[in-house]
TrEMBL record:
Keywords: ATP-binding, Cytoplasm, Kinase, Magnesium, Metal-binding, Nucleotide metabolism, Nucleotide-binding, Phosphoprotein, Transferase. It is found in: Cytoplasm. The active site is at H121 (pros-phosphohistidine intermediate). It catalyses: a ribonucleoside 5'-diphosphate + ATP = a ribonucleoside 5'-triphosphate + ADP; a 2'-deoxyribonucleoside 5'-diphosphate + ATP = a 2'-deoxyribonucleoside 5'-triphosphate + ADP. GO terms for molecular function: ATP binding; metal ion binding; nucleoside diphosphate kinase activity. Residues 3-140 form the Nucleoside diphosphate kinase-like domain. ATP binds at K11, F59, R87, T93, R104, N118. This is Nucleoside diphosphate kinase. The gene is ndk. SUPFAM superfamilies: Nucleoside diphosphate kinase, NDK. PANTHER family: NUCLEOSIDE DIPHOSPHATE KINASE. Major role in the synthesis of nucleoside triphosphates other than ATP. The ATP gamma phosphate is transferred to the NDP beta phosphate via a ping-pong mechanism, using a phosphorylated active-site intermediate. Its cofactor is Mg(2+). The keyword Phosphoprotein applies.
Amino acid sequence: MTIERSLVLVKPDGFQRGLSGEVLRRIEAKGYTLVALAILTPTVEQLAAHYAEHEGKPFYEPLVEFMSSGPVTAAVIEGQDCVRGFRSLAGATNPTEAAPGTIRGDLGRDWGLKVQQNIVHGSDSPESAAREIGIWFPGL
Ligand code: DAT
Ligand code: MG
């Protein structure tokens, strides 16, 4: 049994479209527990830490600009294998390619504004989750 935690963000596109509740609904319906929840507008400093692995890539600057453009819903979720499980719920990075049944596949599409507008973020490993939870929920 590995009870994990994962860091989920409903990105500015998802927040603006009123999809925070739908994302949280799917998380709870899957059987994961909400441990922490916040609405905040990310700072560039938070995003630089969060997306450090992508620094220098061509999409990095537009990604940080987009992610700091408005409020996000940040959540820490908990459950058996929830890191992989939420990635599975979220679907492929590109919403055009994400399978039906997934958050990105059901609710996302290419808006002509690149794949950065893909509704949600989910940690990609338990180690990433621990690091990211420290950025968005220090002290948790
Ligand atoms: P994921 O969010 O599925 O973990 P990632 O960590 O590789 O994907 O990338 C982080 C975010 O950056 C992703 O959600 C959207 C954006 N992104 C990734 N690859 C991109 C690309 N080739 N062009 C534009 N944006 C991209
Ligand atoms: Mg990632």
